[in-house]
Amino acid sequence: ESLAEGPVGTPGFWAPEVYLPRARPHYDPFAADLYALGCLLHLCAVKRLPHARDLADPRDRKAADALLKRRAKADRRADKAALVAARVPR
Questions:
Q1: Range 37-59 burial, b when 16+ CB lie within 10 A, else e
Q2: Most buried residue, 16, 32, 33, 48, by most Cβ within 10 Å?
Q3: Residues in contact with 42: Cβ distance below 8 Å, sequence separation at least 6, in sequence order
């Protein structure tokens, strides 16, 4: 069996700790899945994600987009470092 090494899924369903790079290695994936299930049930019940209203303000959306871009950039750096480390003979 193999497990994903990073966040997987739709960002709107991610648990808050998945967004935080420092918390990522220590977060409980089962708790994050339970959070995502709660988001799905909320979406089914009221036809919107639980935090959709939080991002209605363009300033909040801009901040969320900046956070996702910063997280993605940090992931690329980590991926690059892992690739370089794998290619360097020991």
A1: eebeeeeeeeeebbeeeebeeee
A2: 32
A3: 48, 49, 50
d(CA 3, CA 45): 31
pLDDT in tens, the chain (90 residues): 566 666 677 888 888 887 776 656 677 888 889 999 999 998 899 888 887 665 556 666 677 677 667 666 666 666 666 655 656 554
Q: Could you state, in order of their start, the residue ranges of all structural domains in the chain?
A: 11-87
Residues written for the chain:
90
